[in-house]
Structure formats: structure tokens, C-alpha cells
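Discussion board: Methods & Data

I've been asked by a reviewer to show the raw model output for two of the constructs in my manuscript, not just the figures. I'm not sure how much to include, so I'm pasting the format here to get opinions. Each protein appears as its amino acid sequence followed by a line of C-alpha cells. Is this the kind of thing reviewers expect to see in a supplement, or should I convert it first? Here is construct A:
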Amino acid sequence: MTTTPRAYVAGPLFDEGERWWIEQVDQLVADAGFITFLPHRDNPPKDEFNVRAIFENDKRGIDEADVVVANLNGVLTDDGTAWELGYAYAKDKYIIGLHTDWRMRFPHEVVNLMMECSMDRLVRNLDDLRAALAEWLATR
């Protein structure tokens, strides 16, 4: 019997638009058949007393994930998301980067080469994300 796969959904969460977008991504991942971890949903509101607990909870979310899906949109990738990608890479997680932003950062790279080379897949829209998740599920 196989267990339901888990996905950590990473990305910036600093304004309503970013939270709305990552919630759309999270719903797509859940609809694809994953139990998801979404940091702003699965942690208490941050205050001066619980930052270490949130850090540990997020790290545990990556540790327990089979797949990490990361929103890489923006002129620069969010620094917390970049850390999550690096940690997931070090833990040998399957990483799918989502970059729907039409701005290119470098002539031959969509995002910073260290992030780009850390990912198993880089997709440019939600349909391609859905397909990448289905492909991963089919090969597990």
C-alpha cells in the first residue's frame, strides 16, 4: 500500500497577492493528489516569541515532503524560498520550480543558476505544473 505523497509549497508570503497566488498553487498540488504543507497556513501567526518554532516546523515540512513546489516569481526569488530550495536539494527532494513571470533575469537562465540547477523541473505555467506533478506521480 502506498502512502499519499506530500508536497511542501514554497514562495513569498508578504502581501495578499502573494498569499492568494500560493494558495492557488497549493490547491492545484492538493487536487493532483498530494497532502500539502503551506507555511502561512500550517504555522501560527509569526511573533517575536515563535520564530524558532516556525523555522523548525517549516524545516520539518520539507523533511516530510516528497516534492517541493516553489514559486520563483519576481525580479529576485524570495530569500526564504531560496533557502528552502537549497535545503530541499540537500535533502534530495524532488523540486519543481514555478516561474510564470515573463521577465528574464539572465540571457541563458530563467532564475539564478544555483537555483535553476538545483531543480528537477522548471515550469512556466500552472498547466505545466499539473503535468509535472502527474509525471512524478506516475514514476513513483
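Construct B, same format:
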Amino acid sequence: MSIRHYRLSTFIWRITASHMITYFIIGFLAYHLLNYQQLYGSHPFSCLMKPSNSPWVVMGPSLQIVRGIILSLSLWFFKDVFLTGRTGWIKLYALVAGLSILSCSTPGPGSIEGIIYTKIPLDNQLIGYFELFTQTLLFSILVVYWYKKPFRAWDIISLLLIISILFFGLMALVSLTTI
């Protein structure tokens, strides 16, 4: 079956699920390995980032469903570029990393705009690259692989993982509000 025959709903599901799953896994690892609680609680990030126990931060992985849908709708028009051929994951990786990490139009830490316009020291800006580039790489590989080997088991596993992410976010939020 040609990639062009895939439905938009399938594409949205696979992109959103791949984004949420890789975001959760890599975000969890980065949070603990890079000690984000301390890093984001200290200057200069404390001026930009909400504290780790903020309900918004706790719900962050669950709220990535919105970003996943936006990402999927944006990538829909370019799917043939990265879903065909042997190097599709590299094309998807370059597209997403280039547009969403390095050249985003806001002066976020690590972006070209952030390096130029913010007072945040360069070493502080680059610390998030481990998380950003690793998540984007895994996302790109997962998306393309899921299309190359579309087993029913991937749908079931991804559904269970998304339900778990939503459940953990809800339980963490409930625990914050009952303390």
C-alpha cells in the first residue's frame, strides 16, 4: 500500500502517540539525569520555568497530545518526503529538529534566537540538547518504523502507553491538589 493511501486519522494517531511516548520517556530520563528540578529552580531558568510541582508541569506529558496533533497536521503535507525511501527517518529528524529546536521563532533556550537575544549563558542553553535531540531522534525513528512495519501490536502497545501517560498525569495532579 502506498503511503499516499493512509488516512489522516491514522497519521494523526501515529505522530501524536510517537511524540507523547518519546517525550515521556526521554523527558523522564532527562529530568532525573540532568536534575531538572534543581536546574529549573535556579537562576536563570527559575525566571522562565514553572516549578516542578506546578500542576501544568505535572500534566505536561499528558498535554503533549495537543502538540502531537499540531505536529501531525503540520507534517501531513510532507509525509511522502519522509515515509518513502530508506533515509526517511533522517529527513524527518532534520525537519523537526531544524524547525522546532534550532530555528524556532521564539528566543527559547538553545534556539538560535535564544543564543542571540537572551542573557542566558551558552552552557545553560545547551544543557537541554541531550533531551531535545534524543527525543526528536527517537520520535523520527519510531514514526518511520511504524509505517514500514505497521503491526497491529504497535497500535495496542501505543494505546496502552498513552492511557498510562494520561493516567499518571491525572494521578500526579490529584496528589498535588490533595496535599
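Answer (T.O., handling editor elsewhere):
This is acceptable in a supplement if you add a one-line summary per construct. For B, something like: Residues 30 and 131 are 6 Å apart (CA to CA).
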